[in-house]
Design brief:
It contains 5 helices and no strands. It is mostly helical and 148 residues long. The protein has one domain. Helix 2 packs antiparallel against helix 3 and helix 3 packs parallel to helix 5. The longest helix has 31 residues. The chain is elongated and about 55 Å long.
Length: 148
Amino acid sequence: MAYKEKYLYNIYMKEKKNKSDLYIAITHWLTSGFVVPLILVFLTVIALGMFLPEKDPVVYEIIMIFLSPIIYWLGTMYGANYINKTYIIKNKDKIAKISALTLLIIGGGFRLLGFINSGVLKLEFIGFGLILITFYIASKKYIKNSTL
């Protein structure tokens, strides 16, 4: 174990892990861009279903366009906090770029596939653009390079 790594600890005094930027970026995307938003969107849809008398899917889609960037911002805050405590981060900008690119490829790929199958350009493409921008900006803001 290198001298620097030996003294980089998280709040539980567990040693931080030395992983590749790609590994950390994928972990960040899975946590910040998939798991946390999935849970928060699920809870939001349940809440909207309980409190909105209108059952029109377009209304839900418009509301979600505005709420999704907030949900992804919160998810990114949580995910960045997790990776900052768990991993030795040498290049935060590279991690932010790789994780945003992963979101673009996977999230954009599913939306493109839906467009190819239906031929309809949905409102969610606007929301996805906002999500992608929010995810990248929040990742750059909250992911920190490790220091001694």
